[in-house]
């Protein structure tokens, strides 16, 4: 015999599977266990204020225009823990006072502001 040829008598006879025979796990057509859905991740609800307290008002008037270049309602929402509607009103008030100026095209949902420099004011 050559090297590549194997003796076929060494193999054990294979078991023939009948198509009519029931499978060993004949419990329901291969579905297995029913999928359990997860409850999902629950985000903690933040308690943002709907009115300015003195601390947040001082921070709005002093720190936000001085230290922040890009000012949006979302930035005020994060830094001052206030509602976005209150942040929009505060930004409109600061723009009317001349502390901030609007940048770019005005968008109905997200207005972008920057601090007004002394030469522009």
Oligomeric state of the chains? single chain
**Mind describing the biggest β-sheet?**
2 strands, antiparallel
What letter string, H or E per element, gives the SSE order? HHHEE
CATH architecture designation of the domain at 54-115: Orthogonal Bundle
C-alpha-based Rg, rounded: 35 Å
Strand order of the largest sheet: 1-2
Strand content: under 5%
Number of helices: 3
* Low-confidence runs: none
CATH homologous superfamily assignment of the domain at 54-115: Winged helix-like DNA-binding domain superfamily/Winged helix DNA-binding domain
How many beta-strand elements? 2
Task: Give helix % range.
Answer: 25-40%
Keywords: Ribonucleoprotein, Ribosomal protein
Protein name: 40S ribosomal protein S25
Biased composition (Basic residues): 31-40
Region (Disordered): 1-44
How would you describe this structure in keywords?
two-stranded antiparallel sheet, mainly alpha, 3 helices, 121 residues
């Amino acid at each position: 015999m050559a090297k590549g040829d194997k003796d076929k008598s060494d193999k054990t006879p294979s078991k023939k599977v009948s198509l009519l025979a029931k499978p060993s796990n004949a419990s329901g057509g291969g579905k297995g266990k029913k999928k359990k859905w997860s409850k999902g991740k629950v985000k903690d609800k933040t308690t943002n204020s709907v009115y300015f307290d003195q601390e947040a008002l001082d921070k709005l008037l002093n720190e936000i225009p001085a230290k922040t270049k890009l000012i949006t309602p979302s930035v005020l929402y994060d830094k001052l823990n206030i509602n976005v509607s209150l942040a929009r009103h505060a930004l409109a008030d600061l723009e009317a006072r001349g502390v901030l100026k609007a940048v770019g095209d005005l968008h109905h949902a997200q207005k972008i502001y920057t601090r007004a420099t002394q030469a522009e004011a």
